[in-house]
Backbone:
């Protein structure tokens, strides 16, 4: 299927022929029907079957395993959860520490599974560098962020400040103001993880039906074009595609993020840049940038994309020249030697943003509904926690995972905060993003007057506050 190969650099790199699995053509009675063969759906299936092999579990996928964000992301496997600081704020220091440890353990838990299942997905746990590398205000805001993390009980061993020289030992950028370093992060080849996990799930006896979009779902079952499934549990695991399964689109805004990959770079170029042990990196602007050095020595670099009116999904990820050039500009500011490098791949995908940036893992036992999402661009690791937590919840296992503030066990979907109706969402989202772009343009201009810099940052900070 060449069209699936074009989804991303990662899908293009797969050795397998990407032959479609069979689609569902007959009715079924199962215990758990999972919609979506991305990480959330696959991890849920994996942990359900590992713990309860007798369960009848099935996965329905509209396209192919890894078609969604799971086969397209930046490969940051993070040991955290978006907005964890706010989610954990009400806990005692001991509880908070235990929750942080649960989150920090995610990359190692994934590593355990990929070793057990022989999934080669270029896993390297080199940590992450959140760099102040373009303008001095980045140092101020990152230091403030770090102080907040330490106030929450995180320690130097979890997040520490690297001065210019220490940063330069790991990553050489033009203007090294400093960086936050955290060891709780690995980089991976995302599609290899998704595809390998799909095979592991099949080995456990879970059929995955591809080219089988679910067109209707309710408590107790779902329907595709050709078949019906009766199921005790339904697990919609469609994060950025929630609009395709009403009413879930009310709770997760589909936002796009866009990436580029360079051609493989020479050893000499990497000697100049660094990143010699799989570290992930970003630069501290509100453009939400993320990068890694791939196992085959490319620079893979992404930044925030957009939101379309009424949550319309973006299907065409042939990036425009200006979308590619923005990303080239951003990494070229860090690494001028790459300003003219050849970009071989560009792509993007839809991810799910929950209101107030609060990821959720929800179980509605009365109606047989379990779902996790709203990871907001930080879902590679979070979806592992999500899938594992949903399995615990469905199997009624009392683990530390089910006792976290992001777990919802009462109230069903109505316990989630819905996004505002249109046109408020579109106007709000775009106004906020514009304020971020404006801030970045002003701060990146060394001649901008101090009052302009301050005003641009205050405005962007004020606008960001609306999303939380
Ligand atoms: C470009 C990009 C970069 C990112 N980078 C990072 C990163 O570096 N680190 C990080 O932590 N997070 C990142 N994320 C977020 C992360 O990739 C996602 O949060 C995570 O992969 C979500 O997994 P999922 O299984 O919940 O959803 P998905 O992987 O999107 O899977 C959903 C699946 O459901 C299927 N589907 C949709 N509708 C239906 C239907 N009606 N019937 C049947 N199947 C359906 C889709 O085809 C898809 O395969 C990124 C996201 C994007 C888009």
Residues:
């Amino acid at each position: 299927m060449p069209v699936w190969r074009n989804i991303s650099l990662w899908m293009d790199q797969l050795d397998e022929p990407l032959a479609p699995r069979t689609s569902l053509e007959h009715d079924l009675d199962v215990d758990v029907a999972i919609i979506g063969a991305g990480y959330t759906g696959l991890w849920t299936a994996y942990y359900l079957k590992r713990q309860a092999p007798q369960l009848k579990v099935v996965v329905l996928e509209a396209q192919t395993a890894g078609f969604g964000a799971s086969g397209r992301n930046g490969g940051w496997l993070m040991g955290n959860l978006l907005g964890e600081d706010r989610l954990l704020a009400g806990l005692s220091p001991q509880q908070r520490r235990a929750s942080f440890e649960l989150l920090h353990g995610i990359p190692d838990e994934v590593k355990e599974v990929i070793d057990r299942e022989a999934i080669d997905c270029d896993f390297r746990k080199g940590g992450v560098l959140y760099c102040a590398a373009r303008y001095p205000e980045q140092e101020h805001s990152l230091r403030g962020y770090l102080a907040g993390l330490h106030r929450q009980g995180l320690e130097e061993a979890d997040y520490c400040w690297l001065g210019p020289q220490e940063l330069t030992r790991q990553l050489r950028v033009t203007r090294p103001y400093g960086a936050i370093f955290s060891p709780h992060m690995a980089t991976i080849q995302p599609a290899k993880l998704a595809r390998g996990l799909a095979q592991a799930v099949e080995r456990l006896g879970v059929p995955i039906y591809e080219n089988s979009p679910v067109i209707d779902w309710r408590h107790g079952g779902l329907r595709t074009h050709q078949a019906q499934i009766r199921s005790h549990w339904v697990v919609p695991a469609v994060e950025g595609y929630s609009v395709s399964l009403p009413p879930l689109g009310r709770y997760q805004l589909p936002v796009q993020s866009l990436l580029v990959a360079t051609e493989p770079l020479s050893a000499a170029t990497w000697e100049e840049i660094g990143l010699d042990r799989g570290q992930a990196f970003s630069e501290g602007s509100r453009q939400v940038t993320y990068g890694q050095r791939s196992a085959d020595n490319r620079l893979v670099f992404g930044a925030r994309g957009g939101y379309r009116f009424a949550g319309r999904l973006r299907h065409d990820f042939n990036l425009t020249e200006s979308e590619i050039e923005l990303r080239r500009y951003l990494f070229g500011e860090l690494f001028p030697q790459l300003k003219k490098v050849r970009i071989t791949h560009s792509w993007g995908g839809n991810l799910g943003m929950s209101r107030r940036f609060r990821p959720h893992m929800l179980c509605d036992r009365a109606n047989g509904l379990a779902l996790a999402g709203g990871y907001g661009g930080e879902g590679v690791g979070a979806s592992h926690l999500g899938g594992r937590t949903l399995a615990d919840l469905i199997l009624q296992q009392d683990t530390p995972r089910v006792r976290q503030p992001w777990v919802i066990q009462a109230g069903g979907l109505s316990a989630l905060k819905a996004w505002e109706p249109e046109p408020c969402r579109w106007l709000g989202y775009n106004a906020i993003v514009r304020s971020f772009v404006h801030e970045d343009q002003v701060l990146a201009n060394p001649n901008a007057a101090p009052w302009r810099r301050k005003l641009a940052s205050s405005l962007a900070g004020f606008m960001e506050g609306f999303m939380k």
About this structure: The chain is about 35% helix and 20% strand.
